[in-house]
Amino acid sequence: MSNEPYSEQYRVLAEDWVDKDAAARLYEETKSIELARRKSLLNDMTDAKSERIVRSSPEWADYIQRMVNSKTEANKARLKLKVLEMRYYENQSQNATARAEMRMG
To answer: Among 65, 84, 88, which Cα is nearest to 15's?
Structure first.
């Protein structure tokens, strides 16, 4: 747990999540472009055959694994952000409870 204000902790975690989410979305958005590029390298084949070859290749499996890993990292970063939000609200609740107890005497 950091001694930084919640707002600064949130900013740092949010920037990390935004960067990781952007990387994951880039993989997702360029998947069909990458498939088409790889298929185009296989000359004189039907579209279906070249797609089968590309999708069954170790290189494609590696590309998909990197895409999944990127999304997993973005999800973990988002989870850290949500945990910080929960800690903030827990702290607010504890402070409110302490104030109410002090008023009751």
So the answer is: 84
